[in-house]
Protein backbone atom coordinates (compact mmCIF):
# COMPACT_ATOMS: atom_id res chain seq x y z
CA UNK A 1 0.00 0.00 0.00
CA UNK A 2 0.89 3.68 -0.36
CA UNK A 3 0.76 5.43 3.02
CA UNK A 4 -0.10 9.11 3.15
CA UNK A 5 1.04 10.77 6.36
CA UNK A 6 -1.31 13.65 7.02
CA UNK A 7 0.16 16.86 8.45
CA UNK A 8 -3.27 18.52 8.50
CA UNK A 9 -3.58 19.97 5.01
CA UNK A 10 -7.01 20.57 3.54
CA UNK A 11 -5.83 18.60 0.53
CA UNK A 12 -4.59 15.40 2.18
CA UNK A 13 -7.66 13.48 1.08
CA UNK A 14 -7.20 14.78 -2.43
CA UNK A 15 -3.82 13.03 -2.51
CA UNK A 16 -5.58 9.82 -1.47
CA UNK A 17 -8.16 10.37 -4.14
CA UNK A 18 -5.55 10.88 -6.88
CA UNK A 19 -3.77 7.68 -5.80
CA UNK A 20 -7.07 5.76 -5.85
CA UNK A 21 -7.73 7.14 -9.33
CA UNK A 22 -4.60 5.29 -10.44
CA UNK A 23 -6.17 2.10 -9.04
CA UNK A 24 -3.52 1.95 -6.35
CA UNK A 25 -4.43 1.08 -2.79
CA UNK A 26 -3.59 3.78 -0.27
CA UNK A 27 -4.31 4.69 3.31
CA UNK A 28 -4.24 7.96 5.15
CA UNK A 29 -2.53 8.07 8.57
CA UNK A 30 -1.88 10.84 11.02
CA UNK A 31 1.68 12.17 10.66
CA UNK A 32 2.10 11.14 14.30
CA UNK A 33 1.18 7.50 13.60
CA UNK A 34 3.14 5.16 15.87
CA UNK A 35 5.60 2.82 14.19
CA UNK A 36 3.65 -0.21 15.47
CA UNK A 37 0.69 0.79 13.34
CA UNK A 38 2.64 1.47 10.16
CA UNK A 39 5.35 -1.20 10.25
CA UNK A 40 3.16 -4.29 9.70
CA UNK A 41 2.13 -3.04 6.24
CA UNK A 42 3.90 -3.71 3.00
CA UNK A 43 4.65 -0.08 2.18
CA UNK A 44 5.33 0.66 -1.48
CA UNK A 45 5.69 4.39 -0.97
CA UNK A 46 5.10 7.11 1.59
CA UNK A 47 3.70 10.55 0.80
CA UNK A 48 4.01 13.37 3.32
CA UNK A 49 1.15 15.83 2.95
CA UNK A 50 1.09 19.59 3.36
CA UNK A 51 0.05 21.20 6.62
CA UNK A 52 -0.62 24.52 8.31
CA UNK A 53 2.47 24.57 10.58
CA UNK A 54 6.06 25.74 10.16
CA UNK A 55 8.58 22.91 10.51
CA UNK A 56 11.03 25.04 12.52
CA UNK A 57 8.49 26.09 15.16
CA UNK A 58 8.35 24.48 18.55
CA UNK A 59 5.53 21.96 18.73
CA UNK A 60 5.37 21.50 14.94
CA UNK A 61 4.45 17.91 14.00
CA UNK A 62 7.24 15.59 12.81
CA UNK A 63 7.49 12.01 11.63
CA UNK A 64 9.05 9.88 14.38
CA UNK A 65 12.67 8.78 14.25
CA UNK A 66 11.57 5.14 14.25
CA UNK A 67 9.60 5.72 11.06
CA UNK A 68 12.55 7.47 9.37
CA UNK A 69 14.72 4.49 10.38
CA UNK A 70 12.18 2.08 8.90
CA UNK A 71 12.09 4.10 5.66
CA UNK A 72 15.90 3.89 5.42
CA UNK A 73 15.99 0.19 6.28
CA UNK A 74 13.31 -0.81 3.81
CA UNK A 75 14.41 1.72 1.20
CA UNK A 76 10.86 3.08 0.82
CA UNK A 77 10.45 5.92 -1.70
CA UNK A 78 9.18 9.15 -0.09
CA UNK A 79 7.47 12.15 -1.66
CA UNK A 80 7.03 15.27 0.46
CA UNK A 81 4.46 17.83 -0.65
CA UNK A 82 4.65 21.43 0.64
CA UNK A 83 5.05 21.03 4.43
CA UNK A 84 6.03 17.44 3.59
CA UNK A 85 8.97 18.69 1.52
CA UNK A 86 9.94 21.10 4.28
CA UNK A 87 9.80 18.21 6.75
CA UNK A 88 12.19 16.25 4.50
CA UNK A 89 14.51 19.23 4.28
CA UNK A 90 14.30 19.88 8.02
CA UNK A 91 15.14 16.29 8.91
CA UNK A 92 18.02 16.00 6.44
CA UNK A 93 19.64 19.33 7.21
CA UNK A 94 18.22 21.82 4.70
CA UNK A 95 17.12 25.32 5.61
CA UNK A 96 13.44 26.22 5.87
CA UNK A 97 12.43 29.78 6.76
CA UNK A 98 9.63 32.22 6.02
CA UNK A 99 9.63 33.39 2.40
CA UNK A 100 9.79 37.09 1.51
CA UNK A 101 6.36 36.78 0.01
CA UNK A 102 3.68 34.24 0.60
CA UNK A 103 2.80 32.41 -2.55
CA UNK A 104 -0.79 31.46 -3.30
CA UNK A 105 -2.26 30.44 -6.61
CA UNK A 106 -0.91 29.54 -10.01
CA UNK A 107 2.83 29.56 -10.68
CA UNK A 108 4.93 28.53 -13.66
CA UNK A 109 7.39 25.87 -12.60
CA UNK A 110 10.59 25.50 -14.62
CA UNK A 111 12.63 22.32 -14.66
CA UNK A 112 16.34 22.71 -14.03
CA UNK A 113 18.33 22.26 -17.19
CA UNK A 114 20.23 19.02 -17.20
CA UNK A 115 18.25 17.54 -14.30
CA UNK A 116 16.38 14.55 -15.66
CA UNK A 117 14.12 14.08 -12.66
CA UNK A 118 12.01 10.94 -13.10
CA UNK A 119 9.24 12.77 -11.29
CA UNK A 120 8.75 14.99 -14.33
CA UNK A 121 8.97 12.34 -17.03
CA UNK A 122 6.72 13.26 -19.94
CA UNK A 123 6.21 16.85 -18.75
CA UNK A 124 7.35 19.94 -20.69
CA UNK A 125 10.25 22.11 -19.53
CA UNK A 126 7.81 24.55 -17.97
CA UNK A 127 4.39 23.78 -16.52
CA UNK A 128 1.75 25.40 -14.38
CA UNK A 129 1.24 24.28 -10.78
CA UNK A 130 -0.68 25.56 -7.81
CA UNK A 131 1.13 26.96 -4.76
CA UNK A 132 -0.07 27.67 -1.26
CA UNK A 133 2.72 28.37 1.20
CA UNK A 134 4.37 30.98 3.41
CA UNK A 135 7.62 29.17 4.27
CA UNK A 136 10.14 28.11 1.72
CA UNK A 137 13.34 26.21 1.31
CA UNK A 138 16.48 28.39 1.38
CA UNK A 139 19.05 25.60 1.11
CA UNK A 140 18.76 21.97 0.03
CA UNK A 141 19.92 19.25 2.40
CA UNK A 142 23.16 17.46 1.64
CA UNK A 143 22.83 14.82 -1.04
CA UNK A 144 19.70 16.45 -2.49
CA UNK A 145 19.62 18.45 -5.68
CA UNK A 146 17.31 21.04 -7.05
CA UNK A 147 14.94 19.76 -9.76
CA UNK A 148 12.73 22.79 -10.47
CA UNK A 149 12.18 26.43 -9.50
CA UNK A 150 9.85 29.37 -10.06
CA UNK A 151 10.58 33.05 -10.48
CA UNK A 152 9.88 33.51 -6.77
CA UNK A 153 11.48 30.42 -5.25
CA UNK A 154 14.64 28.58 -6.11
CA UNK A 155 13.75 25.21 -4.73
CA UNK A 156 10.25 24.13 -5.64
CA UNK A 157 11.29 20.55 -6.38
CA UNK A 158 14.18 18.66 -4.83
CA UNK A 159 15.36 15.09 -5.07
CA UNK A 160 17.79 12.54 -3.79
CA UNK A 161 17.72 9.50 -6.07
CA UNK A 162 20.03 7.51 -3.75
CA UNK A 163 17.75 7.92 -0.78
CA UNK A 164 14.69 7.68 -3.06
CA UNK A 165 13.33 10.98 -1.77
CA UNK A 166 11.52 13.72 -3.65
CA UNK A 167 10.03 16.99 -2.48
CA UNK A 168 7.58 19.42 -4.09
CA UNK A 169 6.72 22.86 -2.84
CA UNK A 170 3.58 22.99 -4.97
CA UNK A 171 0.42 20.89 -4.75
CA UNK A 172 0.18 18.30 -7.55
CA UNK A 173 -3.00 16.86 -5.99
CA UNK A 174 -5.31 19.82 -6.72
CA UNK A 175 -7.12 20.21 -10.02
CA UNK A 176 -5.58 23.68 -10.49
CA UNK A 177 -2.31 21.81 -11.17
CA UNK A 178 -3.20 20.44 -14.62
CA UNK A 179 -0.26 18.00 -14.89
CA UNK A 180 -0.21 17.22 -11.16
CA UNK A 181 -1.76 13.78 -11.57
CA UNK A 182 1.04 12.85 -14.01
CA UNK A 183 3.66 13.79 -11.43
CA UNK A 184 1.94 11.74 -8.73
CA UNK A 185 1.68 8.82 -11.13
CA UNK A 186 5.35 9.09 -12.01
CA UNK A 187 6.11 8.79 -8.32
CA UNK A 188 3.61 6.15 -7.27
CA UNK A 189 3.67 3.87 -10.31
CA UNK A 190 6.89 4.50 -12.23
CA UNK A 191 9.27 5.22 -9.38
CA UNK A 192 7.76 3.27 -6.47
CA UNK A 193 6.33 0.51 -8.66
CA UNK A 194 2.93 0.35 -6.97
CA UNK A 195 0.51 -2.18 -8.43
CA UNK A 196 -2.51 -0.72 -10.21
CA UNK A 197 -4.93 -3.43 -9.25
CA UNK A 198 -7.12 -1.75 -6.67
CA UNK A 199 -10.83 -1.32 -7.42
CA UNK A 200 -13.79 0.28 -5.62
CA UNK A 201 -15.13 -3.09 -4.52
CA UNK A 202 -11.93 -3.47 -2.48
CA UNK A 203 -12.94 -0.33 -0.61
CA UNK A 204 -16.27 -1.97 0.17
CA UNK A 205 -14.66 -5.22 1.31
CA UNK A 206 -12.19 -3.41 3.55
CA UNK A 207 -15.01 -1.43 5.14
CA UNK A 208 -17.12 -4.52 5.66
CA UNK A 209 -14.26 -6.32 7.33
CA UNK A 210 -13.31 -3.40 9.55
CA UNK A 211 -16.88 -2.64 10.58
CA UNK A 212 -17.44 -6.25 11.62
CA UNK A 213 -14.48 -5.94 13.97
CA UNK A 214 -15.56 -2.51 15.19
CA UNK A 215 -19.15 -3.47 15.96
CA UNK A 216 -18.32 -6.91 17.31
CA UNK A 217 -20.56 -9.94 17.26
CA UNK A 218 -23.47 -8.43 19.11
CA UNK A 219 -23.49 -4.71 18.33
CA UNK A 220 -26.56 -3.14 16.73
CA UNK A 221 -26.46 -0.17 14.37
CA UNK A 222 -29.23 2.28 13.55
CA UNK A 223 -29.15 4.44 10.44
CA UNK A 224 -31.41 7.04 8.86
CA UNK A 225 -31.93 6.26 5.21
CA UNK A 226 -33.50 8.87 2.96
CA UNK A 227 -32.99 7.03 -0.30
CA UNK A 228 -30.39 9.51 -1.56
CA UNK A 229 -27.18 8.06 -2.99
CA UNK A 230 -25.11 8.56 0.18
CA UNK A 231 -27.50 6.93 2.62
CA UNK A 232 -28.30 4.15 0.14
CA UNK A 233 -24.64 3.24 -0.39
CA UNK A 234 -23.94 3.45 3.35
CA UNK A 235 -26.96 1.25 4.10
CA UNK A 236 -26.03 -1.38 1.51
CA UNK A 237 -22.49 -1.57 2.94
CA UNK A 238 -23.79 -1.87 6.48
CA UNK A 239 -26.29 -4.50 5.46
CA UNK A 240 -23.55 -6.55 3.83
CA UNK A 241 -21.42 -6.18 6.95
CA UNK A 242 -23.88 -7.09 9.72
CA UNK A 243 -27.21 -7.99 8.11
CA UNK A 244 -30.16 -7.98 10.51
CA UNK A 245 -28.22 -6.14 13.21
CA UNK A 246 -28.46 -3.04 11.05
CA UNK A 247 -31.72 -1.15 11.54
CA UNK A 248 -32.47 1.17 8.63
CA UNK A 249 -35.13 3.74 9.30
CA UNK A 250 -36.80 6.19 6.94
CA UNK A 251 -38.98 8.98 8.27
CA UNK A 252 -41.86 10.25 6.15
CA UNK A 253 -42.29 13.84 7.30
CA UNK A 254 -45.11 14.58 4.86
CA UNK A 255 -42.73 16.77 2.85
CA UNK A 256 -41.30 14.07 0.60
CA UNK A 257 -41.57 13.96 -3.17
CA UNK A 258 -44.37 12.13 -4.94
CA UNK A 259 -44.38 8.39 -4.09
CA UNK A 260 -40.94 8.82 -2.53
CA UNK A 261 -41.47 6.63 0.55
CA UNK A 262 -43.05 3.90 -1.53
CA UNK A 263 -40.32 3.95 -4.18
CA UNK A 264 -37.41 4.13 -1.75
CA UNK A 265 -38.82 1.26 0.31
CA UNK A 266 -39.22 -0.84 -2.81
CA UNK A 267 -35.74 -0.06 -4.13
CA UNK A 268 -33.99 -0.65 -0.84
CA UNK A 269 -35.89 -3.79 0.04
CA UNK A 270 -36.26 -5.49 -3.30
CA UNK A 271 -33.21 -4.30 -5.20
CA UNK A 272 -30.71 -3.76 -2.40
CA UNK A 273 -31.88 -6.30 0.16
CA UNK A 274 -31.94 -3.75 3.00
CA UNK A 275 -34.77 -4.26 5.47
CA UNK A 276 -35.77 -0.59 5.54
CA UNK A 277 -38.67 0.52 7.72
CA UNK A 278 -40.63 3.67 7.03
CA UNK A 279 -42.18 5.61 9.87
CA UNK A 280 -45.16 7.59 8.70
CA UNK A 281 -44.97 10.77 10.72
CA UNK A 282 -46.62 13.08 8.19
CA UNK A 283 -49.44 14.13 10.53
CA UNK A 284 -47.06 14.78 13.39
CA UNK A 285 -44.87 17.05 11.25
CA UNK A 286 -47.78 18.81 9.56
CA UNK A 287 -49.37 19.50 12.94
CA UNK A 288 -46.19 21.12 14.20
CA UNK A 289 -45.69 23.14 11.02
CA UNK A 290 -49.18 24.61 11.05
CA UNK A 291 -49.06 28.39 10.67
CA UNK A 292 -45.23 28.47 10.54
CA UNK A 293 -43.83 30.60 7.71
CA UNK A 294 -40.31 31.47 8.87
CA UNK A 295 -37.72 29.31 7.02
CA UNK A 296 -35.42 28.84 10.00
CA UNK A 297 -38.34 27.90 12.27
CA UNK A 298 -39.42 25.31 9.71
CA UNK A 299 -35.94 23.82 9.65
CA UNK A 300 -35.70 23.75 13.44
CA UNK A 301 -39.10 22.09 13.85
CA UNK A 302 -38.36 19.46 11.22
CA UNK A 303 -34.82 18.78 12.44
CA UNK A 304 -35.92 18.59 16.08
CA UNK A 305 -38.86 16.31 15.39
CA UNK A 306 -36.70 14.06 13.25
CA UNK A 307 -34.29 13.69 16.17
CA UNK A 308 -37.17 12.94 18.58
CA UNK A 309 -38.45 10.20 16.28
CA UNK A 310 -35.00 8.76 15.78
CA UNK A 311 -34.41 8.73 19.51
CA UNK A 312 -37.71 6.91 20.04
CA UNK A 313 -36.67 4.32 17.46
CA UNK A 314 -33.24 3.83 19.02
CA UNK A 315 -34.92 3.26 22.39
CA UNK A 316 -37.23 0.64 20.86
CA UNK A 317 -34.25 -1.21 19.37
CA UNK A 318 -32.44 -0.98 22.69
CA UNK A 319 -35.46 -2.51 24.47
CA UNK A 320 -35.81 -5.30 21.98
CA UNK A 321 -32.16 -6.27 21.50
CA UNK A 322 -30.55 -5.14 24.72
CA UNK A 323 -28.47 -2.48 23.05
CA UNK A 324 -28.22 -0.08 20.14
CA UNK A 325 -24.65 1.12 20.11
CA UNK A 326 -23.85 2.70 16.80
CA UNK A 327 -25.22 5.29 14.43
CA UNK A 328 -24.56 5.04 10.70
CA UNK A 329 -23.97 8.35 8.93
CA UNK A 330 -23.45 9.03 5.25
CA UNK A 331 -21.01 11.89 5.86
CA UNK A 332 -18.84 12.60 2.81
CA UNK A 333 -15.37 14.08 2.74
CA UNK A 334 -16.50 17.57 1.63
CA UNK A 335 -18.75 17.73 4.75
CA UNK A 336 -15.70 16.90 6.83
CA UNK A 337 -13.51 19.57 5.26
CA UNK A 338 -16.23 22.17 5.56
CA UNK A 339 -16.77 21.48 9.21
CA UNK A 340 -13.07 21.63 10.08
CA UNK A 341 -12.12 24.52 7.87
CA UNK A 342 -14.45 26.98 9.57
CA UNK A 343 -12.15 27.97 12.40
CA UNK A 344 -13.72 31.31 13.20
CA UNK A 345 -17.31 32.28 13.73
CA UNK A 346 -19.10 32.23 10.42
CA UNK A 347 -22.52 33.53 9.59
CA UNK A 348 -25.27 30.95 9.58
CA UNK A 349 -26.74 31.17 6.11
CA UNK A 350 -29.07 28.23 6.62
CA UNK A 351 -29.20 25.67 9.38
CA UNK A 352 -28.73 22.46 7.48
CA UNK A 353 -30.50 19.71 9.30
CA UNK A 354 -28.41 16.65 9.67
CA UNK A 355 -28.34 13.70 12.01
CA UNK A 356 -24.95 14.85 13.36
CA UNK A 357 -26.88 16.98 15.80
CA UNK A 358 -28.29 14.05 17.76
CA UNK A 359 -28.40 14.70 21.50
CA UNK A 360 -25.56 13.38 23.64
CA UNK A 361 -28.08 11.37 25.71
CA UNK A 362 -28.33 8.90 22.84
CA UNK A 363 -24.71 7.91 23.42
CA UNK A 364 -24.36 6.41 19.98
CA UNK A 365 -20.95 6.00 18.44
CA UNK A 366 -20.60 7.04 14.81
CA UNK A 367 -19.83 4.86 11.82
CA UNK A 368 -19.09 6.86 8.69
CA UNK A 369 -18.10 4.59 5.79
CA UNK A 370 -18.06 7.39 3.20
CA UNK A 371 -16.04 9.87 5.24
CA UNK A 372 -13.04 9.67 2.92
CA UNK A 373 -14.92 9.78 -0.35
CA UNK A 374 -16.13 12.46 -2.71
CA UNK A 375 -19.59 12.35 -4.26
CA UNK A 376 -18.43 10.90 -7.57
CA UNK A 377 -16.48 8.20 -5.72
CA UNK A 378 -19.62 7.33 -3.73
CA UNK A 379 -21.42 6.96 -7.04
CA UNK A 380 -18.63 4.72 -8.36
CA UNK A 381 -18.86 2.67 -5.18
CA UNK A 382 -22.65 2.43 -5.59
CA UNK A 383 -22.20 1.09 -9.12
CA UNK A 384 -19.53 -1.36 -7.92
CA UNK A 385 -21.97 -2.59 -5.26
CA UNK A 386 -24.56 -3.22 -7.95
CA UNK A 387 -26.95 -0.47 -6.82
CA UNK A 388 -29.31 0.59 -9.60
CA UNK A 389 -28.45 3.63 -11.74
CA UNK A 390 -31.52 5.60 -10.69
CA UNK A 391 -30.48 5.49 -7.03
CA UNK A 392 -26.86 6.20 -7.84
CA UNK A 393 -27.54 9.26 -9.99
CA UNK A 394 -30.29 10.85 -7.92
CA UNK A 395 -30.06 14.55 -7.18
CA UNK A 396 -29.65 15.42 -3.51
CA UNK A 397 -32.83 16.22 -1.60
CA UNK A 398 -32.72 18.36 1.56
CA UNK A 399 -33.81 16.94 4.92
CA UNK A 400 -36.65 19.47 5.38
CA UNK A 401 -37.84 18.51 1.90
CA UNK A 402 -40.71 20.33 0.27
CA UNK A 403 -41.24 22.41 3.41
CA UNK A 404 -38.45 24.78 2.34
CA UNK A 405 -39.81 24.86 -1.20
CA UNK A 406 -43.21 26.15 -0.13
CA UNK A 407 -42.63 29.83 0.51
CA UNK A 408 -45.14 30.36 3.24
CA UNK A 409 -47.26 28.05 5.31
CA UNK A 410 -46.65 24.36 4.87
CA UNK A 411 -49.87 22.38 4.86
CA UNK A 412 -51.16 19.26 3.16
CA UNK A 413 -52.86 21.18 0.36
CA UNK A 414 -49.77 23.18 -0.57
CA UNK A 415 -47.56 20.09 -0.30
CA UNK A 416 -49.90 18.18 -2.62
CA UNK A 417 -49.85 20.92 -5.28
CA UNK A 418 -46.09 21.20 -5.14
CA UNK A 419 -45.57 17.42 -5.17
CA UNK A 420 -47.62 17.11 -8.32
CA UNK A 421 -45.82 19.94 -10.20
CA UNK A 422 -42.43 18.67 -9.04
CA UNK A 423 -43.14 15.16 -10.28
CA UNK A 424 -44.09 16.46 -13.72
CA UNK A 425 -40.93 18.56 -13.92
CA UNK A 426 -38.68 15.63 -12.96
CA UNK A 427 -40.48 13.32 -15.39
CA UNK A 428 -39.86 15.81 -18.21
CA UNK A 429 -36.18 16.06 -17.25
CA UNK A 430 -35.76 12.30 -17.50
CA UNK A 431 -37.70 12.20 -20.76
CA UNK A 432 -35.62 14.94 -22.39
CA UNK A 433 -32.34 13.37 -21.20
CA UNK A 434 -31.23 16.34 -19.10
CA UNK A 435 -31.51 14.82 -15.62
CA UNK A 436 -27.91 13.59 -15.37
CA UNK A 437 -26.32 16.84 -16.53
CA UNK A 438 -28.14 18.75 -13.79
CA UNK A 439 -26.88 18.91 -10.20
CA UNK A 440 -30.26 19.54 -8.68
CA UNK A 441 -33.74 20.33 -9.96
CA UNK A 442 -36.99 21.13 -8.18
CA UNK A 443 -40.11 23.26 -8.16
CA UNK A 444 -40.82 26.03 -5.68
CA UNK A 445 -44.37 27.00 -4.79
CA UNK A 446 -45.31 30.56 -3.84
CA UNK A 447 -48.69 30.26 -2.18
CA UNK A 448 -48.68 33.88 -1.08
CA UNK A 449 -48.42 35.12 -4.66
CA UNK A 450 -51.51 34.76 -6.84
CA UNK A 451 -51.69 35.62 -10.49
CA UNK A 452 -54.53 36.09 -12.91
CA UNK A 453 -54.91 33.73 -15.84
CA UNK A 454 -57.44 32.59 -18.36
CA UNK A 455 -58.41 28.97 -18.91
CA UNK A 456 -61.09 28.09 -21.39
CA UNK A 457 -63.30 31.13 -21.19
CA UNK A 458 -62.88 31.65 -17.51
CA UNK A 459 -60.66 33.77 -15.32
CA UNK A 460 -58.30 31.98 -12.92
CA UNK A 461 -56.60 33.42 -9.88
CA UNK A 462 -54.05 30.84 -8.79
CA UNK A 463 -50.59 30.04 -7.49
CA UNK A 464 -47.27 30.73 -9.18
CA UNK A 465 -44.45 28.23 -9.16
CA UNK A 466 -40.81 28.41 -10.20
CA UNK A 467 -38.61 25.74 -11.70
CA UNK A 468 -35.04 25.67 -10.42
CA UNK A 469 -32.39 23.61 -12.26
CA UNK A 470 -28.74 24.15 -11.40
CA UNK A 471 -25.42 22.95 -12.65
CA UNK A 472 -22.93 22.34 -9.88
CA UNK A 473 -20.32 19.86 -8.75
CA UNK A 474 -19.88 20.80 -5.11
CA UNK A 475 -23.17 22.57 -4.29
CA UNK A 476 -21.12 25.45 -2.85
CA UNK A 477 -21.40 27.41 -6.06
CA UNK A 478 -23.90 26.83 -8.84
CA UNK A 479 -25.11 28.26 -12.10
CA UNK A 480 -28.64 28.00 -13.41
CA UNK A 481 -28.94 25.25 -15.99
CA UNK A 482 -29.52 26.37 -19.56
CA UNK A 483 -32.55 24.23 -20.17
CA UNK A 484 -33.76 24.34 -23.78
CA UNK A 485 -36.93 26.41 -24.26
CA UNK A 486 -38.70 23.42 -25.69
CA UNK A 487 -38.23 21.44 -22.47
CA UNK A 488 -39.31 24.43 -20.39
CA UNK A 489 -42.33 24.82 -22.56
CA UNK A 490 -43.38 21.18 -22.11
CA UNK A 491 -42.95 21.46 -18.37
CA UNK A 492 -44.91 24.68 -18.18
CA UNK A 493 -47.86 23.54 -20.25
CA UNK A 494 -48.08 20.19 -18.47
CA UNK A 495 -47.92 21.78 -15.01
CA UNK A 496 -50.56 24.39 -15.82
CA UNK A 497 -52.85 21.87 -17.48
CA UNK A 498 -52.45 19.04 -15.02
CA UNK A 499 -51.94 20.66 -11.63
CA UNK A 500 -55.03 22.17 -10.10
CA UNK A 501 -53.95 25.35 -8.32
CA UNK A 502 -51.08 26.57 -10.52
CA UNK A 503 -51.64 28.92 -13.45
CA UNK A 504 -48.16 30.37 -14.01
CA UNK A 505 -44.67 28.88 -14.22
CA UNK A 506 -41.35 30.78 -14.02
CA UNK A 507 -37.76 29.64 -14.52
CA UNK A 508 -35.17 30.69 -11.93
CA UNK A 509 -32.10 32.22 -13.62
CA UNK A 510 -30.05 33.13 -10.55
CA UNK A 511 -26.70 31.63 -9.72
CA UNK A 512 -25.15 30.85 -6.34
CA UNK A 513 -23.75 33.10 -5.00
CA UNK A 514 -25.45 35.52 -4.58
CA UNK A 515 -28.62 33.38 -4.51
CA UNK A 516 -28.60 29.98 -2.82
CA UNK A 517 -29.78 26.78 -4.47
CA UNK A 518 -32.89 26.40 -2.31
CA UNK A 519 -35.20 29.38 -1.96
CA UNK A 520 -35.45 29.22 1.82
P1 LIG B 1 -28.20 25.99 -0.53
O1 LIG B 1 -29.64 26.31 -0.58
O2 LIG B 1 -27.56 26.33 0.80
O3 LIG B 1 -28.08 24.43 -0.67
O4 LIG B 1 -27.43 26.59 -1.69
C1 LIG B 1 -26.91 23.71 -0.90
C2 LIG B 1 -27.25 22.24 -0.89
O5 LIG B 1 -27.68 21.86 0.42
C3 LIG B 1 -28.99 21.32 0.39
N1 LIG B 1 -29.69 21.76 1.60
C4 LIG B 1 -29.95 20.96 2.64
N2 LIG B 1 -29.71 19.65 2.83
N3 LIG B 1 -30.74 19.77 4.92
C5 LIG B 1 -30.13 19.07 3.97
O6 LIG B 1 -29.96 17.86 4.17
C6 LIG B 1 -31.02 21.09 4.82
O7 LIG B 1 -31.57 21.71 5.70
C7 LIG B 1 -30.61 21.71 3.59
N4 LIG B 1 -30.71 22.99 3.12
C8 LIG B 1 -30.13 22.98 1.88
C9 LIG B 1 -29.61 21.88 -0.88
O8 LIG B 1 -30.69 21.08 -1.33
C10 LIG B 1 -28.41 21.88 -1.80
O9 LIG B 1 -28.17 20.59 -2.32
From TrEMBL:
EC top class, in one word? ligase
| Catalytic activity of the protein | XMP + L-glutamine + ATP + H2O = GMP + L-glutamate + AMP + diphosphate + 2 H(+)
Q: Where does ATP bind?
A: 226-232
Q: What PROSITE patterns would the database entry show?
A: GATASE_TYPE_1, GMPS_ATP_PPASE
* Pathway terms, separated by semicolons: Purine metabolism; GMP biosynthesis; GMP from XMP (L-Gln route): step 1/1
The EC designation for this entry is 6.3.5.2
Does the UniProt entry include the keyword Ligase?
yes
Q: Name one GO molecular function term.
A: ATP binding
Print the keywords alphabetically.
ATP-binding, Glutamine amidotransferase, GMP biosynthesis, Ligase, Nucleotide-binding, Purine biosynthesis
- Sequence ranges assigned to domain GMPS ATP-PPase in this UniProt record: 198-394
Q: Which GO terms describe its cellular component?
A: cytosol
| Alphabetized InterPro entries for the sequence | Class_I_gatase-like, GATASE, GMP_synth_C, GMP_synth_GATase, GMP_synthase, GMPS_ATP_PPase_dom, NAD/GMP_synthase, Rossmann-like_a/b/a_fold
Q: Which residues form a coiled coil?
A: none
HAMAP family, per the entry: GMP_synthase
UniProt name for this protein? GMP synthase [glutamine-hydrolyzing]
Q: Which organism is it from?
A: Chaetoceros tenuissimus
Amino acid sequence: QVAILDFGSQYSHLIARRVREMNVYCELYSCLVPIEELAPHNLTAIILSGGPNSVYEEGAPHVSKEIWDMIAERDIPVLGICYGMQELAHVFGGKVAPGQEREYGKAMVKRIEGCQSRLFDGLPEEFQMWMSHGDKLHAVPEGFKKAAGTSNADFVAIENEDKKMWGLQFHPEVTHSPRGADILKNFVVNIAGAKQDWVMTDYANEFIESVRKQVGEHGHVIGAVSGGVDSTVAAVLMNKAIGHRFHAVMVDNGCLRKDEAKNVLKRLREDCGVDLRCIDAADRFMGLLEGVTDPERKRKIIGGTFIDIFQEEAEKIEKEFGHCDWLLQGTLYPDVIESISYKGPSATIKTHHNVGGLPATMKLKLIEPLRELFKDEVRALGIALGIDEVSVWRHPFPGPGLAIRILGEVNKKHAEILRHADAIMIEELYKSGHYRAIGQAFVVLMPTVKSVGVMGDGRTYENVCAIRCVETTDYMTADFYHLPYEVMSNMSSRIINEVRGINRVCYDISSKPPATIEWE
